[in-house]
Amino acid sequence: SGKRVRLRDCFLASLFFLCSNVYALSMYGPVFSWTRDGTHFDIDHLSNVNMKQRSGTLVVDIRNDKAEHYEGTYQCTARNDHGTALSHNIVVRQSRSPLWSKEKIKPIVVQEGVPLVLPCRPPAGLPPPIIFWMDNNFQRLPQSRRVSQSLNGDLYFSNVLRADSRNDYICYARFPHTQTIQQKQPITVKVLNQEPTDERRPTFLTPSGQSSSKVVLRGQVLEMECIAEGLPTPEISWTKVSGELPAERTSYLHYQKTLRIVNVSEADAGEYRCIARNELGSVHQTIHVAVKAAPYWISGSPKNLILAPGENGALTCRASGTPKPAISWAMNGVPIENSPNDLSRRVDDDTIIFTNVQTGSSAVYQCNVSNEYGYLLSNAFVNVLSEPPRVLTPAHHVYQVIKNHQALLDCSSFGSPIPEITWFKDSRASTLDGEPYKIHDNGTLEIHGSQTRHNGKYTCVAKNMLGISENHVYLEVKEPTRILKQPEYKVVQRGRDAVFECKVKHDPTLIPTMTWLKDDDELPDDERLVVDSDSLTITDVTDSDAGVYTCIMNTTLDQDSASAELTVVEATPTPPVVYELPDAPTDLELTEQKKRSVQLTWTPGDEHNSPIEKFIIQYEDSLHHKGHWHNLTQVSGMKTTAHLKLSPFTHYTFRVLALNGVGLSRPSLPSRMYKTDPAAPDVNPADVHGFGTEHDNLVISWKPLTANQSNGPGLYYRVMWRQKGVESDWTAVPVRNASKFVVSGTPTFAPYELKVQALNDHGAGPEPDVAHGYSGEDLPLAAPDNVQVQVISSTQAAVHWDAVPAKLLRGHLKGYKVYYWKERGLHKHNHHHEEKQILTFGGNHTHGKLPGLHPFSLYSCHVRVFNGKGEGPPSPIQPFETDEGVPGAPSSLVITDSNVDSLTLEWSPPHDRNGHITGYTLKYHPVNNTHALGPLEELALPSNETSVVLVNLKYSTRYKFYLNAKTKIGAGPPISQEAVTIMDEAPPVSEDFGNVSSTNADDGVLISWEYTGPEKDIYVEYKMKDSKQHWHKELVNGSDNFVVKGLKAGVSYWVRLVASGQSDLACFTLSPAVASRQVDIATQGWFIGLMCAIALLILILLIICFIQRNKGGKYPGDERERGCHTDPEFQPMKEEDCTFGEYSDNEDHKPLKGSRTPSNGTVKREDSDDSLVDYGEGGDGQFNEDGSFIGQYSGKSEAPSPVNAMNSLNSFV
Questions:
Q1: Which parts of 302-443 are beta strand (E)?
Q2: Alpha carbon distance 46, 49 (integer Å)
Q3: What is the pLDDT of residues 392-427, one digit of tens each?
Q4: Which burial class, exposed, middle or buried, applies to 743 when counting CB atoms under 10 A from its CB (0-12, 13-18, 19+)?
Q5: Is the pLDDT of residue 893 over 50?
Q6: I need a surface site. Which of 91, 364, 470, 756 has the fewest CB within 10 A?
Q7: How many other CB atoms sit within 10 Å of the CB of residue 714?
Q8: Count of alpha carbons within 13 angstroms of residue 660, beta-carbon side
C-alpha cells in the first residue's frame, strides 16, 4: 500500500563478494537480470521499473499503479565471464487489511456461573492481525484466571458473574503493516441470577477431547493453550511427560493458560500435559508435539574456492532438517546434470570434488537444500587462477610502538597458489621466527614486548610457484611517557595561590600535549587558572576551586596521568554568623510545553546568610515509579528557570531543592503533572555480550532498558545474530521480558556478530551496533606435543612443549598445567611416593621450570592445556631423574661413652641422602671456661662407618663436635653436639664462687674459696664416693675456708659447697683430693663409739622423716629441689659414678664462644634423699689426687623456693 517498492538484497553477502571480484577481474561488470514466477521479468518495457547501476537493485514506482500487479516470486541472476550466480527467492505480496463483514449480533443471555465464549473471527489479512478486546471508551477489558483471550482471539469465561453484564464487548483487529485497526460489532452479554448454579469440576473448553497434536518448526516459538471451565474457577498447570521443561526458554501467558517455548529444538518434541484443577477435582489434556525443521547449515554454507591449475579442492554443502532435506547442485544456474561434462569434477551427494583442475574450469556453483518446510540456496565461486604473488600492504610504511608493547607489522598478500610469507630484518641474515617473533596466518609479524633493539627495516616476502614479491616497512620503538613528579594534595587558604606541579619524561621524537582536568571535566574558563608547561597555578583561590585536579600527558602513542586534591579553608577567623539551611523554593510553574521538553520556573526561598550555590530539580514518574523522586538536573544558584529535557511516555511531577554552604533545603511543593506521549525507543540495550554455557549454544545477553528508556508500552527486543566469517543472513527473534536469549545447535567456539534492537508498540529503536561474541567452549581435543624435560640442577628442571593448535583448543586459551610427581628416590633405601604437584602457566607459554625438586630422584610429568571449559587430555608421561645433591645433616649424633681422655661418638646416616654417601667429615675443638675456642681438628671418615672413638683428648674438657655427610657433589649441613671428658676439675657454674681449691692439712683437707654472692650462710657437705650414706653438713659461718676432718685415707669423697638463702641458688662441683696422711682414727675406740652414735642418730632421723613423708607432710626440700631444677637445659650427673651425663646442644648453630654449660635439671634419685631434698641436686663431680678442678655447672631458678643453695661437689681420696 506504499508509494514505492524496492527489491533489495538480490544476492547473498557471499555473492556480493563474488560479484565484486568478478567486476575486478573482467573488463566489464556483472550483468543482472530478474525472473518473476520462473519467467523472465522484462523491465525494459516497464517505464515505472528501473534497475540501479552496478547493483542490480530493482526500484518499482507504484504511485500510479496497483501493487497487486507486481505480486509474485522474484529471483535475481548475476552473470559475467566467470559464471552465473542466483539470489534467494524474494516473495512480494501486497499487505491487506479487509473490513469485517456486516453482521447483526444478538444479545447473549446466560445464567450466572455457566461458561461462555465470545467469538472474534477477524477477517484474514496479510500479515495476520493482532487481536485485542476493548470497550466503547477504548479501554482494554480486564482479564484474569476466570476471563482470558485465547490464541485465536476469542474471549473465554470459565464462569460468568453478574458483573460481566455489559453491552460493549468489542473485538479489535490491528493490521501492523498497514497501521489500520478494524472493529467488530459490539456484543451484549446479560447474566441472569434466576437460580443458584451448582459447583462443578473442571472441563476443557479448548482444546477438545483428551489429547491433541501440534507441529512446530525448529527455531520458532511453540505456543500451546488449555482453557477450562468450572466452578470455582480452575487453575492450570503444565508438565512435560517425557522430560523437563526448558526453564530458560519457557514462559507462561494468559494466567498460566498458555505455555510458550521460544527457539524450539528437536529436544522439545514429546508429550505435554496441562492439568485443570479446582476444589472438586481435576482433568488433564495431553498434547503431542512434533518438531520439524526447515533446512539449516551444519558447518556453514559452501565457501568460495581459489585453485591453481593442477590443484585439488572440494565444495561441501552440509545441511540438516526434518524431514531430511534433498540436496541438488547447479553450475551457473543450470542443474549440474545438464551442465557440460568436466572430468575434473565429481559430485558425491553433498560434496563436489575437484581433481587436477585446469584453466577454464571457473564457475559459480549453486547448492539448493530443501524439504517441505523451506530451502537453503548458496552460491560458491570456484576460481581456477594462476596469479603470481602481490603484496598489498603499502610500501615503506613506518610503524611506531611504545617500548615493552606489542608490535604488529602487516603483510597482506594475494596470489594463486596462496603465497608463503617470510620476514627478514635488515641484512636478511635469517628468517624471523621464534621468540619474540610470531608470524600469523594472514602474514602479520607480531613482536612481543618490543625493545629498542627491534628498531629497523623489516622485509616481507610473499612467494609461490609463479613468482615472488616483497615489501619493506620500518619499526620505531619509542620510550614510554612517564610523570616523574606528580601533583600533591594541598590545603590552601581562601585568597591565596595554589600551584600543582606535573613534570613529565617522554620520548623526544614524540610531541607531547599537557591537559589539565578538574573533577574529570575541563578546567573552568577562568583567567585565574594559569597552565604552564609543567604546572598549574590557581591565583586568589575561592571555594569553587576546591576539587580534584588531574594532569594528563598525551603523545600520539600513549599517555600518563596523575591527580591531586585541593581543599580550600578559611583564611582568617571571622565574627560568628548564623548560617542556616535555605528555605524551600516556591511558586513552581511549567511553561513552553513541548513533546520532549518543558521550562520550569520558581521563586527562591531565603538564603539565611549563606548564598545559594545551586538548585536541584527532581522529578517523580507516577506512571512507572510512583513515590520515588529522582534527580533530573541542577542549575546555578543565580538562575530561577531550567529548560528540562523529557522522555516519552512519562507522567512527570517536578520539585526543586536549594543548596547553600550549610546543606539542602526542604523540597518545594510539587508542580502539576505533565504527561509526555509515547514514542519508539531512542536507545538500544547496552552491554551486549555473547558467550556459551554449553559447547553447542550461544547465550546473547544485554542490559535491558529501564521503564523511562522504553518510551512506550509493549517493549520487546529483536535479537539478531550470525556467524562471523560465514556468509549468511542475520537470524532474528523477538524476545519479551528477558535480558538474554540462548541460541542452540551452534558450532563449538565459533565467533558471532550480535545485535539487539529495542522496539515497542510505537516502533523500533535506532539501528543497533554490532557486538561480538563466541559460542560455547568445549574441552580441548589434544594434548601438547613434544614434551621434553631438561634437568637444570639437583632441585630444578625445565619443561618444554609445543603449543596446541588453535583449532584443537575449542575455547579461549587460558594456559598450560604441568603435573609432576616424585616416583621414588634413586637411593635403594628410599621408596617414597609423593602426591602430584601442579604448576600453572597462563597464556601461550610453551615452557616453564619445576622448582623445589628432591635431588637424586625419579620424577614423572605430563602437560595439559586448559581453556575456559576445563583441561584437555594429558600428554604422554615423561620421566626424568634429578642430579645428585648435597646430603642433609646426619639424623642423630650421640656420645655413648665418656672417659678421661676419650669419647665415643655414634651417628645415623642422613634421612635425605640426596645421592650416594661418599663419607663423613668430623670436626671438633675444645671450649674453655672463658668460652674461647681451641684449635679445630678435622677427621675424614668412610661412608660405611657410623661410630668413632676419639682418643688422646684432654681430661675434664668440653668439646663441640660437627659432623656432616658428603656426596660427590659436596658436603651437606652439619649436626653438632657437645660432650665433656671425665672431669678432674669443675669450673664454676656461677660467678659467685671462685678460686675453689683443696690442700692437704695436718688434720684433714683444707677447702678454700671466694664467694661474692648475697647469701649469708655457707655449708660444706661431703660423703664417700659411691656411698648411699647421707651427706655430712657443716656450717661455715661466713668464712672462706674449712678443714674437713676425720676422713679415711685411701677413700674417695664427694664434697660440695652450698650457699643457702632466700633468693638464689647456685651449684658447682669440685674434683676429688687425697686425704691427708694421718693416724688412722678408724682404729680408735672413741671414734668407733662416736660413729655408732652418729649412725644411730641418723637412723632415728631417717625413721622420723619416713613417718612424716608417709603422713603426707610436705618436706621442705621439695621446694628447694624444684627450685634447683627449673632450667630445662640442666644436664644431671650420673650419681653412681659422679660423672656428667651426655650433653646435647639443641641449637646446633649457635656460636661456641658465647655458649654456656647447662647448669640445672632433674637429678636422678635412687637411695640418697637428704641433700637432694634439702637443697636440690646440682651436678656431681670428682677430685683427682692433685685436687684440681674438672668441670663447673651453674644455673638460676626463677621458681619461688624458700631455700636456694649453691652446691659444690667434691670427692677425696
A1: 305-307, 313-316, 319-322, 326-331, 334-335, 345-348, 351-354, 363-371, 374-384, 387-391, 397-402, 407-409, 413-416, 420-425, 437-439
A2: 6
A3: 999 999 999 999 999 999 999 988 888 999 999 887
A4: buried
A5: yes
A6: 91
A7: 11
A8: 19
For residue 27, pLDDT over 60 is answered with no
Q: Which amino acid is at 973?
A: P
Residue 275 · residue 283 · CB < 8 Å = yes
pLDDT for the residue numbered 1014: 72
Beta strand 374-384 with 305-307: parallel, antiparallel or unpaired?
parallel
CA distance 965 to 891: 10
State whether the Cα torsion 1091-1094-1100-1106 is positive or negative.
Answer: negative
pLDDT at 69: 81
Q: Beta strand pairing status for 116-118 and 155-157?
A: antiparallel
Omega before 582 within 30 of 0, i.e. cis: no
Distances (CA, A) of 78 to 15, 536, 986: 9, 66, 118
Position 994 scores a pLDDT of 67
The contacts of residue 634 (CB under 8 Å, 6+ apart) are: 614, 615, 616, 617
Residue 426 cell numbers, joined: 635488515
User: Following CA atoms 383, 389, 392, 395 in sequence, which dihedral angle do they give, to the nearest 10 degrees?
Assistant: -170
In the chain, what are the helix, strand and coil shares in percent, each to the nearest 5?
Answer: 5, 45, 50
DSSP character at residue 98? P
Residue 834, C-alpha cell as written in the block? 609423593
Distance CA 1158, CA 1196 (A): 11
Beta bridge partners of 405: none
User: What residue type is assigned to position 828 of the chain?
Assistant: K
CB-based contact 260:232 (threshold 8 Å): no
Q: Which pairing describes strands 351-354 and 345-348: parallel, antiparallel, or unpaired?
A: antiparallel
Examine the pLDDT at 25 and tell me if it is beyond 70.
Answer: no
Measuring CA to CA, which residue among 675, 755, 752, 764 is closest to residue 714?
Answer: 764
Burial class of residue 180 (count of CB atoms within 10 Å of its CB; 0-12, 13-18, 19+): middle
- Asked if 68 and 100 count as a contact pair (C-beta separation under 8 A), the reply is no
The helix or strand, by DSSP H or E, that contains position 1172, with its residue range, turns out to be helix 1170-1175
Distance CA 297, CA 318 (A): 6
Q: Which range among 161-170, 615-624, 931-940, 1121-1130 shows the weakest confidence by mean pLDDT? A: 1121-1130
| Alpha-helical regions (H) of 230-297 | none
The span from the CA of 349 to the CA of 364, in Å, is: 18
State mean pLDDT over 1144-1159.
38
CA dist 99 and 279 (Å) reads: 45
CA end-to-end span of the chain = 140
Confidence of residue 1066 (pLDDT cuts 50, 70, 90): very low
C-alpha to C-alpha distance for 787 and 863, rounded to whole angstroms: 8
Mean pLDDT of the chain: 82
| Closest residue by Cα to residue 1194 from 1208, 1182, 1210, 1175 | 1208
- pLDDT tens digits, 297-351: 988 899 988 888 888 889 999 999 999 999 999 999 889 888 888 888 899 888 9
Q: Nearest Cα to 603, choosing from 585, 617, 616, 583? A: 585
> Is this structure's pTM higher than 0.85?
no
- Provide the β-strand partners of residue 346: 353
Q: What does the pLDDT look like over 348-367, one tens digit per residue?
A: 888 999 998 888 888 899 99
Residue 950's contacts (CB-CB under 8 Å, 6 or more residues apart) are: 902, 903, 904, 905, 924, 939
Task: State yes or no: pLDDT of 793 exceeds 60.
Answer: yes
Tell whether the model's pLDDT for residue 1164 goes beyond 70: no
Q: How far are the Cα atoms of 45, 222, 353, 370 from residue 215, in angstroms, in the given order?
A: 46, 9, 38, 18
Residue 713 · residue 743 · CB < 8 Å: no
- Is the Cα dihedral 378, 379, 384, 387 positive or negative? negative
